[in-house]
Amino acid sequence: MAVDLGRFGVWHTAHNWGPELAAGLERAGYGTLWLGGSPAADLRDAEVLLASTASVAVGTSIVNMWHADPAVVAASYHRLEEEHPERFVLGVGIGHRERTGEYKAPYETIVEYLDALDEGKVPVERRVLAALGPRVLRLAAQRTAGAVPYLTTPEHTRQARTALGLGKLLAPEQKVVLETDEGIARTVARDYLAGYLKLTNYTSSLQRLGFGEDDFADGGSDRLVDALVLHGTAVEIAAGLNAHLEAGADQVVVQQLGKEGPDLLPGYEALADVL
């Protein structure tokens, strides 16, 4: 990866991102601010994060291939590179069948989109791919700087490292709730996971990891919820985050649940103190 991303990053959609949170996370020492959801092709939300900070990396996780014209995305990439050299990473992905009416031939669509980014002269070393299954992970290794898997576990990270091989970026996302009461933490986690556990991309990935249909019912089994959303003290959560590094991740991308906007900052600062 041509950009220094650091060992830990933070993931949120544009709803939570803002100048105050971005600047605070940079001061706390996080290496990358990941803009989640489906950022628009003009990448203006990423531009706000870059302008609000001095040196931290900013990435998209992910630009949705069905919604964002690759030519516009490529032009936007070059604009950001000119304004903020060597700080931006373009993350792209195929999105979800359930949320895309025209979803078909997903693998071929990914290949064609990467071809278009080649035509737009977006460097391979400055783009990453949302990848869960082995086939797309291998494509990420062949055509991009690496993979940014979402909704995963350390076991997936271990398998993903094998599929990617050495020398390619692996930056899995991990959700956390800074809460020691198991009941409260699991309620927060289930509220957030509800929509994700209806998406085939994720349930198929989780089934490959040994989770069954019973784990997806009623908001998710305790076993599944605890695997996907770490909870406890900052020290306990840090141990779970480090498990991804031990499994082969280059960076762990943290998403804190239960707070919004600037209210997220104290929790991230507490984690940064022990990471």
UniProtKB/TrEMBL annotation:
Name the SUPFAM superfamilies on file. Bacterial luciferase-like (SSF51679)
Check the record and name the Pfam families matching this protein: Bac_luciferase (PF00296)
What InterPro entries does the database record attribute to this sequence?
Answer: Bact_Lucif_Oxidored (IPR050766), Lucif-like_OxRdatse_MSMEG_4141 (IPR019922), Luciferase-like_dom (IPR011251), Luciferase-like_sf (IPR036661)
**Example of a GO cellular component annotation carried by this entry:** cytosol
Luciferase-like domain ranges (all copies): 20-118
GO: which molecular function terms?
A: oxidoreductase activity, acting on paired donors, with incorporation or reduction of molecular oxygen
NCBIfam families, per the entry: F420_MSMEG_4141 (TIGR03620)
Q: Which PANTHER family match?
A: CONSERVED PROTEIN (PTHR30137:SF18), LUCIFERASE-LIKE MONOOXYGENASE (PTHR30137)
User: What protein name is recorded for this chain?
Assistant: Putative F420-dependent oxidoreductase
Source organism of the structure:
Kribbella amoyensis
